[in-house]
Structure formats: structure tokens, C-alpha cells
Amino acid sequence: MVGEITIKDVYKKFPNTDPTKEDIVALNGFSLDIRPGSFVSLIGPSGCGKSTLLRIIGGLDKATSGELYIDGKEIRKPGSDRGFAFQGSNLFPWLTVEKNIAFGLKARHIFKEQKDAVQEYIKMVGLQGFEKSYPHQLSGGMQQRTSLARALVGHPDVLLLDEPLGALDAFTRMNLQDEIINIWKKHNMTMLMVTHDVDEAIYMSDQVVVMSARPSKVEAIINIDLPRPRARAQDTFQEYRTKILNVLNLGGKVDEVEYYL
Amino acid sequence: MRKKLFAVSKLLLPFIAIAISVLLYYSIEDNGKQKKTAHPYYLYLLAVIGIVILIEIIAGLFVKSIKKRILHKAPFLTGVIVFLMFLNYVTTKTTMLPTLYFPSLDRIVGLLVESRVFLLKNVRDSLGLLATGFIWGAVVGFLTGLALGYFKIVGYWLNPITKIIGPIPTTAWIPLALSTFPTTHGANVFLIAFAVWFPVTLMTSSGIQSISNVNFEVSRTLGASTLYQIIHVAIPAAMPSIFLGVFYGTVSSFATLMAVEMNGNASGIGWYINWQKSVMLYDGVYAGLIIIAVICSLTLTILFKVRDRVLTWQKGVIKW
């Protein structure tokens, strides 16, 4: 099984926009091990560095210090072992659905060998008939599906999801949650998702990593021991919800929590 | 039934206008001050308009889109014919306007027909000059804009220079260009290229700079190299802005073309107009203006057709 993520003692500092003030510490000695093939959610207050961590794992930002590995290989820059689904769909508006999905294969010069993968993923996210459509002709949910297919088509071992469903309405959101879980099960990959939504985290994950406010570290790791497929209306959900919210409230910043609204 | 009757009468309008025009042409005595032409060219023009409309109507019986267009255009064309009729009346039948500056339609159309070989040669010269200058300006402008927009270090060194040199009106360079270039043609090409270069550079670099960074991040996570990013992200994302630059550049290239042709050139439509003016032949001036209008309008039409093709994903920045 591949897709093990090892995060050891990661610090990340940003220079303050006001140069007379001290640097902002986004991650303060962050460590976490993620089992290959698991579905892990990162949850925590706004600005706690969840997205920063995800970007560092994705290779988009560099850690100030600390070590990060995927299957024992150090992370230096983006690589084909990781897929990244961004907040909002961020499709290229000048490319059709089909070409958006094929972008990564073409950029890595493996399009010829893997041509069929594009069709396969279009089918998987249910976009047959929309191959030649431009992003502005699609609904928000369809755009997000395209974006997922684009991140997945290169067969990454790890998919990093940065609040991928944040901009969608409740129904589309629940639909896509199920689809992401199906994709995850089918492809045996590791999923690491940043979310603001406690219910989403409980519904989808094996593990919920609760992060503290800045400078952030792991506050608690909560295993969600619920059988799949999960029902949204389960009683046990409430227990986990209480547990997570308690962890967050124990930080003593009740009035700053905004994610379960 | 009534709708059909209405459509038919709409299509008859231009022909009625032509009939009245012809009647007027023969029934009222000329003022005798306009130089006589070998043929009644104005009537020929009306005949051509009439035949074109007739062909469209016949084609419209078979093709629906043509039918729709001609029905839509018929009142406008009638207006054009009435305007020509009025123009002809004022210039040939009355003495309201000085005949020197306002030649009859017969003379203008006649000149376009009789001097067509000479005029075409000048059109060719103008278009050749315009195209050479335009291509140089657009290519160099695109490359400078790309470098300025994408590479910060290039921007640091070149931006101040572009900002000082770019806004200088092209016509201000004419004296210097004419004296430093070995040939007038070279100078003219340079001046037109310069007129195109600045807007294209500016709009390309600002187009690239305004691309949201997330586009580049997405492409990096998908494994794109720097070169791949430039070709497949930066350029297409900046394309709407680049087209705007090309549009501004094209418009200013027309102005520059006229300026250089009227200054020290010995051919081209701009030169022709200037020459005709200097020998007091205003029918030539009008003929030249008509030709320029056609050339410029056609060029822009082609440009916007290309734009619509390339930017199917984003339409309607400027309507043409």
C-alpha cells in the first residue's frame, strides 16, 4: 500500500506584512503520520494553518524547517504522487472539460499512453456529454467534478483536498461527498482533506485531526469508528460532533469558532 | 397574410428609392458646374446596389438566414439610397455647395472605376507596408509583453523604459526615423511597428500579471514546467487582454500609416489623397477616403472574426 504521509516537526513562518512586527508562525512544530490508504480530515479554527500544511505537502510552499515524506521520499516540489484539489474548482476557463482533465497528462508528456484515462475519469465523475463544454457552461457541482477528475487522472497516491466542496450548495455537496468516498474506495489512495465542516469531516473520514489556533499543532486525533457506508442521520454522529467541538472549545476560544455555524 | 405583405413591401422599398433616384437624375437639369463624366457612374452604382439586393432576395427564397438578413437590412439600404440621392441632388442639381470641394457622385465613382489599376497599386503598397509593420510590431510587442509580464527581473529593468518610450506618439518619431533609416520604407515599417508594439506590449504584460496565481499553482500541481506554464497557462489566460492590445495597435497603425504616407512617401493611399488634394482634385480625395474606410473596416472585421474564433470561451469584450 502506498500513500503514507510523514510530517515531522514542521515549522512555517511568514513575514509579517508590517515589517516592524514579528513573523507570523503558522505551524509550530507540527508532526503527524498518516496511514497509507486512509481518509484524514484536518479541522481547526480559521487561519490555523490547515491550508498552509496542505500546500507544503503539495509542494506549493516550503516549510521553514522540518521534514516531510511521502512513502519515505522527501517532499521538495509538486509531484505526480500527489494530486491537489483546490478550494473552488479553479478550472482553466479556456479549456473544455476534456482538455482540463487531460492537462496534467499533457504537461507530463504521458497523454499519448494514457489517452483512455481521460474518458474513464469523465465517466467516473458523470460528465459524459459535457466533454466539449467550457467551464462557464457548467454548474458549480459539475465544475468541481471536473476539477476532481483533473486532480485524479494522473493516478496519484495521495489526494490533497483544500476545502473542495466549500462553495457548493448543501445537496450538491452531499452528493459529491459520496462520490469522493467512492473514488477513494475504488482507487485505494490516501485522502487528506481540509474542511471547515465538522459533519463533513465525521461523515467522510477515518480520522479527524483537530488543530489548535495559530501557531498550530495537533490538538487531538479522533478516530471515527463507524461502519461504511455511513448514514448522515446517525446518533453516533452527535457523539463525535460533541467530542470534536469540545476539543476545539477547550482551546478556550469559544467566540472564535465559526466552522460549525 | 398581412405579415407577408409587409415583408414584400419592405423588400420593395429599396427599388422604389432607386426608381425615384433615376427619375430625379434625368428630370432635373444639372447645374452645369460639375465636370461631365464619360458614363453615368452614379446610375451604375445604383444598378449594382439593386442587383445585389435582388440576388440576396432570390437567395433568401432558399436560405432562411439570408432572407432574415435582407429583411432586416432592406430599410437601411433604402436609407443609403435616399442619402445618395440627396447627395447627388445637392451636388449636381443645385449650387448650394462649392463644386470644387464637393464633386458629384458620378465623378467619385467614375474615378474609382477609371483609375482602378493605379488605385489598386497604391492599395497594394499601403497594405504591404501596413502588414509588414503590423507583424513586426505585434510579434515584438507580444514577446516583450510576455517577458515583462512573466519574468519579474525583465520587468524591473525594462518597465521604466517602456513607460517612457511607449507613450511617445508615433508621429513624433517621423523626423528621426526618416533621417536615421537607410530607406524610407524601413523607416515607415519601423514607425508602424512602433505604433503596434506599445499597446500590444502593455496589454500582454498587464494581461499576464493579472492572471490569478492559483492558475499557476494548479498547473504546477499537475506537473507543468515553466515553459509549459507560459505556453499553456500564461498566454491563453492573457489572450483576451492581448487581443485588446492588438485592437488598439491596429487602430493606431492606421493613423500611423496615413501619417507616414502623407510625409515623404511616394505611394500608398495616404500619399494619393495628399497628392490629389494638392492638385485640387477632390474627387480623388473622396475616392481615397472611401478606399481607406473599406480597408480599415475590413481589417478590424477580420481581427474580430479571429478573436471570436480564438476566444470562444469568452466573448464580447468589444462589440464590432
Terminal residue distance of chain B = 36 Å
How many strands of chain B? 0
Number of strands of chain A: 10
Given the C-alpha coordinates, what overall shape of chain B results?
flat
By CATH, the topology of the domain at 5-81 and 156-256 in chain A is Rossmann fold
What portion of the residues of chain A fall into strands of 2 or more residues? 15-25%
CATH architecture of the domain at 5-81 and 156-256 in chain A: 3-Layer(aba) Sandwich
Low-confidence stretches of chain A: 250-254
Separation, N- and C-terminal Cα atoms of chain A: 37 Å
Low-pLDDT parts of chain B are: none
Biggest sheet of chain A, strands in spatial order?
6-7-8-3-9-10
Percent in helix of chain B? over 70%
CATH superfamily of the domain at 5-81 and 156-256 in chain A: P-loop containing nucleotide triphosphate hydrolases
What is the second-level CATH architecture of the largest domain in chain B? Orthogonal Bundle
Number of domains of chain B: 2
Radius of gyration of chain A: 18 Å
Structural class of chain B: mainly alpha
**Biggest sheet layout of chain B:** none
List the helices and strands and how they pair.
The complex is a heterodimer of chains A (261) and B (320).
Chain A lengths: L4 E10 L9 E11 L4 E5 L6 H9 L6 E6 L2 E2 L7 E4 L11 H11 L7 H10 L15 H13 L5 E5 L7 H18 L2 E5 L3 H7 L2 E5 L6 E6 L11 H16 L11
Parallel strand pairs in A: 3-8, 3-9, 6-7, 7-8
Antiparallel strand pairs in A: 1-2, 1-4, 4-5, 9-10
Helix pairs in contact in A: 2-3, 2-4, 3-4, 6-7
Chain B lengths: L1 H26 L13 H22 L1 H30 L11 H10 L1 H35 L1 H14 L8 H7 L3 H26 L3 H9 L4 H37 L6 H10 L3 H29 L10
Helix pairs in contact in B: 1-2, 1-3, 2-3, 2-4, 4-12, 5-6, 5-8, 5-10, 7-8, 8-10, 10-11, 10-12, 11-12
